Protein backbone atom coordinates (compact mmCIF):
# COMPACT_ATOMS: atom_id res chain seq x y z
CA UNK A 1 0.00 0.00 0.00
CA UNK A 2 2.58 2.60 1.07
CA UNK A 3 2.29 5.60 3.32
CA UNK A 4 2.38 9.18 2.14
CA UNK A 5 5.10 11.49 3.42
CA UNK A 6 2.42 13.33 5.38
CA UNK A 7 1.27 10.12 7.07
CA UNK A 8 4.84 9.13 7.91
CA UNK A 9 5.44 12.53 9.48
CA UNK A 10 2.24 12.30 11.54
CA UNK A 11 3.09 8.77 12.75
CA UNK A 12 6.66 9.74 13.59
CA UNK A 13 5.45 12.73 15.61
CA UNK A 14 3.04 10.52 17.53
CA UNK A 15 5.78 7.95 18.14
CA UNK A 16 7.98 10.67 19.65
CA UNK A 17 5.25 11.49 22.19
CA UNK A 18 5.54 7.94 23.54
CA UNK A 19 9.34 7.87 23.39
CA UNK A 20 9.71 9.44 26.84
CA UNK A 21 13.48 9.02 27.14
CA UNK A 22 14.05 10.08 23.51
CA UNK A 23 16.16 7.04 22.66
CA UNK A 24 14.23 6.29 19.47
CA UNK A 25 12.48 3.26 20.97
CA UNK A 26 9.32 2.37 22.83
CA UNK A 27 8.31 -0.85 24.51
CA UNK A 28 6.47 -3.24 22.20
CA UNK A 29 3.46 -3.19 24.54
CA UNK A 30 3.12 0.56 23.81
CA UNK A 31 2.34 -0.09 20.13
CA UNK A 32 -1.35 -0.33 21.02
CA UNK A 33 -1.23 3.08 22.70
CA UNK A 34 0.45 4.67 19.69
CA UNK A 35 -1.99 3.25 17.12
CA UNK A 36 -4.94 4.22 19.33
CA UNK A 37 -3.55 7.75 19.56
CA UNK A 38 -3.46 7.71 15.75
CA UNK A 39 -7.18 6.96 15.63
CA UNK A 40 -7.34 3.19 15.29
CA UNK A 41 -9.15 0.94 17.70
CA UNK A 42 -7.52 -2.49 17.38
CA UNK A 43 -8.85 -5.48 19.27
CA UNK A 44 -6.51 -7.35 21.61
CA UNK A 45 -5.88 -10.11 19.03
CA UNK A 46 -5.03 -7.41 16.45
CA UNK A 47 -2.63 -5.79 18.91
CA UNK A 48 -0.96 -9.13 19.58
CA UNK A 49 -0.58 -9.68 15.84
CA UNK A 50 0.92 -6.20 15.39
CA UNK A 51 3.45 -6.79 18.16
CA UNK A 52 4.39 -10.23 16.81
CA UNK A 53 4.88 -8.74 13.36
CA UNK A 54 7.33 -6.03 14.43
CA UNK A 55 8.85 -7.47 17.60
CA UNK A 56 8.61 -11.27 17.72
CA UNK A 57 10.52 -11.35 21.03
CA UNK A 58 8.57 -8.43 22.51
CA UNK A 59 11.56 -6.10 22.83
CA UNK A 60 11.70 -2.35 22.25
CA UNK A 61 10.77 -1.07 18.79
CA UNK A 62 11.69 1.98 16.76
CA UNK A 63 9.54 4.28 14.65
CA UNK A 64 9.89 1.92 11.67
CA UNK A 65 7.78 -0.60 13.58
CA UNK A 66 4.93 1.93 13.85
CA UNK A 67 5.23 2.77 10.16
CA UNK A 68 5.05 -0.94 9.33
CA UNK A 69 2.02 -1.46 11.57
CA UNK A 70 0.19 1.59 10.25
CA UNK A 71 0.93 0.70 6.64
CA UNK A 72 -0.51 -2.79 6.94
CA UNK A 73 -2.94 -2.56 9.82
CA UNK A 74 -6.06 -3.63 7.91
CA UNK A 75 -8.28 -2.17 10.62
CA UNK A 76 -11.47 -0.58 9.41
CA UNK A 77 -12.26 2.52 11.42
CA UNK A 78 -15.86 1.96 12.29
CA UNK A 79 -18.63 -0.10 10.82
CA UNK A 80 -21.42 1.11 8.59
CA UNK A 81 -23.75 0.93 11.59
CA UNK A 82 -21.43 3.14 13.66
CA UNK A 83 -21.22 5.68 10.86
CA UNK A 84 -25.02 5.72 10.51
CA UNK A 85 -25.41 6.24 14.25
CA UNK A 86 -22.99 9.16 14.20
CA UNK A 87 -24.88 10.84 11.33
CA UNK A 88 -28.16 10.46 13.26
CA UNK A 89 -26.80 12.93 15.82
CA UNK A 90 -27.03 15.64 13.15
CA UNK A 91 -30.43 14.53 11.86
CA UNK A 92 -32.64 16.89 13.87
CA UNK A 93 -35.81 15.92 11.98
CA UNK A 94 -35.25 12.17 12.18
CA UNK A 95 -35.77 11.85 8.41
CA UNK A 96 -32.50 10.10 7.52
CA UNK A 97 -31.11 13.25 5.91
CA UNK A 98 -28.78 16.07 6.86
CA UNK A 99 -27.83 19.22 5.02
CA UNK A 100 -24.86 18.79 2.71
CA UNK A 101 -23.28 21.90 4.21
CA UNK A 102 -23.64 20.36 7.67
CA UNK A 103 -21.98 17.18 6.47
CA UNK A 104 -19.12 19.22 5.04
CA UNK A 105 -18.72 20.95 8.41
CA UNK A 106 -18.59 17.58 10.16
CA UNK A 107 -15.86 16.32 7.83
CA UNK A 108 -13.89 19.56 8.19
CA UNK A 109 -14.14 19.90 11.96
CA UNK A 110 -14.24 16.44 13.52
CA UNK A 111 -11.87 13.51 13.63
CA UNK A 112 -9.27 13.53 10.88
CA UNK A 113 -10.20 16.90 9.43
CA UNK A 114 -10.55 17.49 5.71
CA UNK A 115 -8.67 20.38 4.14
CA UNK A 116 -10.50 22.73 1.74
CA UNK A 117 -9.57 20.70 -1.35
CA UNK A 118 -10.80 17.45 0.21
CA UNK A 119 -13.97 19.18 1.35
CA UNK A 120 -14.68 20.38 -2.18
CA UNK A 121 -14.19 16.86 -3.54
CA UNK A 122 -16.58 15.63 -0.87
CA UNK A 123 -19.22 18.17 -1.86
CA UNK A 124 -19.00 17.03 -5.49
CA UNK A 125 -19.33 13.37 -4.49
CA UNK A 126 -22.25 13.74 -2.09
CA UNK A 127 -25.65 12.59 -3.34
CA UNK A 128 -27.42 15.90 -2.64
CA UNK A 129 -31.16 16.20 -3.29
CA UNK A 130 -32.90 19.27 -4.73
CA UNK A 131 -33.30 20.77 -1.23
CA UNK A 132 -29.62 20.45 -0.32
CA UNK A 133 -29.95 17.34 1.84
CA UNK A 134 -27.94 14.11 1.82
CA UNK A 135 -29.50 10.74 2.56
CA UNK A 136 -26.82 9.56 4.96
CA UNK A 137 -27.79 5.88 4.68
CA UNK A 138 -27.17 6.10 0.93
CA UNK A 139 -23.90 7.98 1.54
CA UNK A 140 -22.78 5.36 4.08
CA UNK A 141 -23.49 2.57 1.57
CA UNK A 142 -21.43 4.46 -1.01
CA UNK A 143 -18.40 4.92 1.24
CA UNK A 144 -18.42 1.36 2.55
CA UNK A 145 -18.78 -0.18 -0.90
CA UNK A 146 -15.92 1.86 -2.37
UniProtKB/TrEMBL annotation:
Q: Which SMART domains match?
A: EFh
The UniProt keywords, alphabetically, are: Calcium, Repeat
Q: Does the keyword RNA-binding apply?
A: no
Q: Which Gene3D superfamilies match?
A: EF-hand
GO cellular component annotations, sorted alphabetically? Answer: myosin II complex
- Domain of life of the organism in this record? Eukaryota
Database matches in SUPFAM superfamilies: EF-hand
Question: One Pfam family, short name please?
Answer: EF-hand_7
| Residues annotated as domain EF-hand | 6-41, 78-113, 114-146
Report a single Gene Ontology molecular function: calcium ion binding
Descriptive protein name: Calmodulin
- Source organism per entry reads Seminavis robusta
Q: Upper taxonomic classification of the species?
A: Eukaryota, Sar, Stramenopiles, Ochrophyta, Bacillariophyta
Amino acid sequence: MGLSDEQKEEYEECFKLFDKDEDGKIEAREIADVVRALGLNPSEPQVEEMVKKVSPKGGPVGVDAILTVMDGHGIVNGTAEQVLESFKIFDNQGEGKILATEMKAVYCNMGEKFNEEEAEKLMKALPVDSKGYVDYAEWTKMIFSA
